[in-house]
Input
Amino acid sequence: YKAMNIFHIPAYTDNYIWVIQSGSDISVIDPGDASPVLELINNNNLNLADILLTHHHFDHVGGTLELKKQINGKVYGPSGNIDGIDIHVSENDKVKTLEHEFTVLETPGHTLDHIAYVEKQKNIVFCGDTLFSAGCGRIFEGTFEQMHNSIQKLNQLEPETQIYCAHEYTESNLKFVISEIANEFIEDYFKKISAKRSKGEISIPTTLELERKINPFLLNVLPSDLQDLPKLEQFTELRTRKDNA
Ligand code: ZN
Ligand code: FE
Output
């Protein structure tokens, strides 16, 4: 199989619109804003194939209707109230775009409609606002339990899975982690990411393997005072501390 050619378009202050490219065709994930996507298309003579949406928040879907005017394929997204979706998808549905096949995982918590798109041969996931590097999405609509289960669902993927999340939050997430956990590996990683960010480089994709070492929301590395609690309580307490940080 062919490797997947993936790159990002920055949008708003810290969103990433992920682009899959095959020759002159592209598909986009979570185009929160149409204008930077149209600029890319027009400057490089590209054709827009499909749009894949993870959840209903404006910074992820805001460009959909405008981009849909010139799409060659379909708009895929979760069931619910998002305008412009052609094909509503749910757990285990397949989405074929360009030459790639994604499997849909339902990952409620941040929103109730949230889904992720996994490419299981190439070990790639577009997970929107569910799992971030060194953090996870805020729980706006679901319960702590739903979010915990969704993150553990992503944690079942292969360790080498490349995680393409929708925001550049890594550095501030790591600041929180360091304030909670004394861990040399995480401190070194924070320094590495800070240096990258000060040069304007992006910190994404990350991998599941790495996240298991730096991301307490996966519950492998934890603040010492939470270690003896049941898993869901660990997650709930951590997410609550982050919300109040
Ligand atoms: Zn969101
Ligand atoms: Fe977002």
